[in-house]
Specification:
mainly alpha, Peroxidase, domain 1, Peroxidase, domain 2, 3 domains, two-stranded antiparallel sheet, 15 helices, 48% helix, 2% strand, disordered N terminus, Peroxidase_pln, EC 1.11.1.7, secreted
């Protein structure tokens, strides 16, 4: 609508029309509630399922204690759910109206440990039948994953509903590629209400987990990306030999891949960003100073990540007849 304002001015040269058009746009923003306002706050289940937080946290921590890579898997699960049609647990559905599921999209290669969500849902259903959505459980588990790995303990609003549909094509066309530019990152997360600092901070989740060789092989061959250190390029080439690695071959995203800290940003500053998008954040003038600040100040990173995480997990949540509380996270109730 902002573009329409400018075009209208250019076509007619009437300042008054520009004013009215932009006033309507501003009013529309005011009357349209933000996603977080559609949620019920931190105590949403205070009366309907008062123990839900402890139930979910206990299930998550038990799994994280047995599998140090699980926190990264849960963070990625939340990201890949919320970036496709919002935070509606559509990534958990086994099949959609077109006969496909988001998990079948190549961009979701390596999504795993859904059993953690299933286990938490089962235990919540035993105490509070038909009350807590899979989307809320997914968001809580991802939040607990960050805290368990050493990151900030984030309070998030609850009250999400589960979506009815899923699609591999939609996921593939929506999820950003690992080669995204800094401008793409700022635009993507800016669309979720994040400022530039939060947009960079949210990618600090790359301090956990691994990336598949297929996602960064173009930085190694035919010649290494000059933004990689010689040692890192050589190590990655050994890990992912040209034309000889499997789809399952991976490398750590960070030197502390099971600890949530600011080492991701320190690595970026020192030429050790694994993905192209990581290197882009470190070298683009729009984001380089933010990266440097987070590399030097973990508290600043944690603060920005916390606010960004709330916005991410509150993105385009469903309300009323738009969604439901699934009884089984893999199937719609209808």
């Amino acid at each position: 609508m902002q573009l329409a304002c400018v075009l209208q001015s250019a076509m007619h040269g009437v300042i008054y029309k520009v004013f009215v058009c932009c006033l309507v746009y501003a009013f529309a923003l005011l009357v349209q509630p933000a996603a977080s306002q559609l949620l019920g706050g931190n105590d949403f289940y205070a009366s309907s399922c008062p123990n839900v937080e402890s139930i979910v946290r206990n299930v998550a921590r038990a799994s994280f204690s047995q599998d140090a890579t699980a926190p990264a898997a849960m963070c990625r699960l939340a990201f890949h759910d919320c970036q496709v049609n919002g935070c509606d647990a559509s990534i958990l559905l086994d099949s959609g109206s077109d006969g496909t599921a988001e998990l079948q999209a190549p961009a979701n290669l390596g999504i795993r440990r859904l059993d953690i969500i299933d286990n938490a849902k089962q235990q919540v259903e035993a105490q509070c039948p038909g009350t807590v959505s899979c989307a809320d459980i997914l968001a809580m588990v991802a939040r607990d994953a960050v805290a368990f790995a050493g990151g900030p303990d984030i309070r998030i609003p609850l009250g999400r509903l589960d979506g009815f549909d899923t699609s591999a094509n939609l996921a593939q066309s929506t999820l950003p590629p690992p080669s995204s530019s800094a401008d793409n990152v700022l635009a993507l997360f800016g669309g979720m209400g994040m400022d530039p600092e939060e947009s960079v901070a949210i990618l600090g989740s790359h301090t956990l987990g691994v990336a598949h060789c297929t996602n960064f092989a173009d930085r190694l061959y035919p010649v290494p990306d000059p933004r990689l250190t010689v040692l890192m390029a050589s190590a990655l080439q050994a890990r992912c030999p040209a034309g000889a690695f499997s789809n399952d071959a991976t490398a750590n995203l960070d030197t502390s891949a099971v600890t949530f800290d600011n080492s991701y940003f320190s690595n970026l500053v020192n030429g050790r960003g694994l993905l192209d998008v990581d290197a882009n954040l470190a070298t683009d003038p729009a984001t380089a100073s933010i990266v440097l600040n987070f590399a030097n100040n973990q508290d600043a990173f944690f603060a920005a990540f916390s606010s960004a995480f709330v916005k991410l997990t509150s993105f385009r949540v469903l309300s009323g007849p738009q969604g439901e509380v699934r009884l089984n996270c893999h199937f719609s109730n209808s």
